Amino acid sequence: MNKAPGKHSSPLPTPRKIRRGCSKELYRTVKRLGVYIPEELIKEGESLYYKKVIGNLLWIAEHTSNRKMLADWWDEAVSGELAELWQIDRESLSHAFRSAFGG
Predict the structure, then answer these.
(1) pTM of the predicted structure, to 2 decimals
(2) Residues 6 or more apart from 48 whose CB is under 8 A from it?
């Protein structure tokens, strides 16, 4: 019914769970960056990240156990737009995300 493809698939996460996960990951990333980012820009970043995750949900669910692969996807799909939105260095952002995410 609400399953990702695969041999040992589990139900896809709910939109609420996805939103909370995105929020936590970006919170940890900002903490590691050590720079001030206004609350409204953080909210915009969370929205951007959430939309990207929803757009690639099946692929993400399929690779949920491979943190490195997910962090690589984040670098390609999210980091550029987020760095531009927050006006910070993309390289620093990627490093902080990988440190927070574990990939």
Answers:
(1) 0.86
(2) 78, 81, 82, 85
